Amino acid sequence: MSLAEALTTIGPIERLTLGDRVYGHMRELLMSGRLAPGEKLSLRATAEILGVSIMPVREAVSRLVADRALEVTPNRAVRVPILDAAQFRELTTVRVEIEGFAAERAAALAGPDDIERIAAAERAFRDLSHAPAPDLAEAVRLNKEFHFAVYAATGLSTLMEIVGGLWLKVGPVINLDLRANPERLATGGAVRFHADALAAIRRGDGPATRAAIAGDIAGAADFILAKGGLSEGAADKT
């Protein structure tokens, strides 16, 4: 076997640095709603949990601060930003437009494998939602998995980057919706909107898919705002 043939059996070497990996893990935690608004992060504790030195954690946190997914308070603490109601409404407006567009494109472009992945994500979220004692943190993650399965069907990497940036900011706030209580999860609109979106994608109905995803986003936002979990004034920066 020649050197070229031998190297072919290995395949490309992953070029992610340790900082990249830590960034990816922390990004996923934020997007999946595993971290709540206002939650503080200890760089040292994070490094110990991940089994790495503090340097890659500091690098990842710096990138997430630049993404506006984390913030440094005046007393130098690192925390998940606390959005006020006006900021959340603005994010919701943008999400309805961007993610609605992505959903409509997905209906036109989704192939059989895409639809299978979307259906699996819809089923997993639905089954958990109707469980006697659902894991609410897992429900938040599965909700994210469904949405991203839909958007990934577009095959548009730039669009996925934009959507990912939005979810970095809104992911922690979704805690206030899906983690509110099991009854909200079972009887809320998320299960219905997901089912409607899947059915519309199967039909290739772009406008109906957009409407279902927009309804899901708006319904969750309305609940969060009605619950009063977000301040109407400027967020506390301490």
Automatic annotation (TrEMBL):
Q: Which Pfam families match?
A: FCD, GntR
Family matches, as PROSITE patterns: HTH_GNTR (PS50949)
Under CDD domains, the record lists: WHTH_GntR
Ranges of residues in domain HTH gntR-type: 16-83
**Which InterPro entries does the entry link to?**
GntR_C, TF_FadR/GntR_C, Tscrpt_reg_HTH_GntR, WH-like_DNA-bd_sf, WH_DNA-bd_sf
Please tell me whether the keyword Membrane is annotated for this protein. no
Kindly list the GO molecular function terms attached to this UniProt entry: DNA binding; DNA-binding transcription factor activity
- UniProt keyword list: DNA-binding, Transcription, Transcription regulation
Task: Kindly provide the name given to this protein in its UniProt entry.
Answer: GntR family transcriptional regulator
Question: Whose protein is this, by species?
Answer: Phreatobacter aquaticus
